[in-house]
Amino acid sequence: MVRKMTPAQFKAAANKAQRQQKQAINKYNREVRRYNSAVKKAVNDHNREVRAHNAKVRTHNNQVKNQRRRLEQEIRRMNSRPQTKTFISYRASVETLARTYTETESALTDGVLTPAGRELVDWGSQEAANSAYLLNAMDGDGEPEDDPTEEELRDPSMQEELEMFGQDLVDRWTGALFSLSPRNPDAARHFCTSAREVLITTIDDSASDENVVKDDPFCDKTDRGVPTRRAKVRFLLRLKGITDDTIEELVEEDMKNVLGLFREFNNGTHGHAGRFTITQLNALRVRVESAIGFIHALCNR
After folding, report:
1. Phi first, then psi: what are they for 114, rounded to 5°?
2. Predicted pPIWI-associating nuclease domain location, by residue (predicted)?
3. Other CB atoms closer than 10 Å to residue 282's CB: what's the count?
4. How far apart are CA 95 and CA 214, in angstroms?
5. pLDDT for 231-242, tens place per residue?
6. Is 300 helix (H, G, I), strand (E, B) or coil?
7. Which of 272, 260, 265 shows the shortest CA–CA distance to 85?
8. ∠ CA 118-169-252 to the nearest 5 degrees?
9. Is the pLDDT of residue 193 over 50?
10. What angle do CA 108, 73, 278 make, to 5 degrees?
């Protein structure tokens, strides 16, 4: 039965209904505004992230282009001079490393690289350029305008990269840097001896014989029955999810280059003992610092 209402009751009910309707409309509008605001924020956040990502990509691409130009420039300078009787083996290694980097980059142009793979390939460009510059500097074609002071030449570096392997390696590297002086007749040899220990230790600590064999019982082994350096490189790459043979070849050629450099100095075949300038010693330091960074990128997970 429909309830009878007085005019006053009807007016009150109508007013109540209107208030409820207005409240419902206001609530709906608030929800719409809240939803639109959330959508706008999400879009703005996304666009901001896209812009930041694109800016990083452009910066990275510019850095890679500059590094490639530097490599091409150093190779041209190297090829513009007749070959000398010193650093013959190292020159061949420099040429091989540069060619390996170029072939690796070309082979991966249309492929999908993981960030870890991209990082190592980019490092390869820097490694090749630094190795070529070192050879040019040793032939007297360096860039003395970029020389540090003798004190700056011995400043500590690479501590963050080496600390993950222990304080002993930090101390060894600091000692290697301390030997760099144009007044030290055996500066380069002392430096290379310590630097070689640093690089070999970083790889051996990151890829122990036991772990490498456990991962691949049929890995390549030396005459002493222990995993080869290349087997260790392959193991470290797999830990980073990298199975591309071209990147493995790039890392291997870089290791051959820097270890071959150490042999050149330690065997005394370079013919310049005791006569190194700050330009030459700085080029040597930069080359080895770059190698430490490259090996750190390989070993760091």
Report:
1. -70, 160
2. 163-294
3. 22
4. 36
5. 999 999 999 999
6. coil
7. 272
8. 35
9. yes
10. 120
